[in-house]
Here is the input.
Amino acid sequence: MAFELPPLPYGYDALEPTINEETMKLHHDKHHAAYTNNLNAGVQEAGLEGKSIEELLAGVSGLSAKVRNNGGGYWNHDFFWKIMAPGGGSPSGKLADAIADFGGLDKLKDEFNGKGAAQFGSGWAWLVADKSGKLSVASTPNQDNPLMDASDVSGTPVLGNDVWEHAYYLTYRNDRGAYLKAWWDVVNWDQAGKNYEAALG
Here is the structure.
């Protein structure tokens, strides 16, 4: 069965003013749709129909660049839409405790924003958890993510922010730092908490 473009879990304008409606339409309907279509083409060419996206990513080192790049783009964007929500909020429960052990939310934001700002060219900033629940911050190039066996970063993604220019340029122009700072206003901490629970197994 072919991969399908997941719908946004909210309206195109739901994250304004942090991310505007035009950006969301282009990002979801054009960019994410292209990754979905190209992933399906790559999977068909390689005879990999029937594998889940997680299975593909776990063995991506042995697959084509087409599957790696578009599979990453497909998974990353599905994750990205879900990790945002109107109104933001704050961490709670086990995730809040882990963030406190990390050094507090302000330290997390500073380190995360720093990784995102320093990522050369296109890529992603991540908050990942290992199986013990320890948190770390990292970045990956292009559409790589911590689920890929080819990635230098491993663990369960808890948060992820897209730092490709198409994610922010219409609103923030070339000021990636302003985008990274504003992004925390729309972080879906309930979903982040669920992601962290999943990391704990």
User: Anything to note?
Assistant: The chain has a mean pLDDT of 97. The longest strand covers residues 123-129. The longest helix spans residues 21-46.
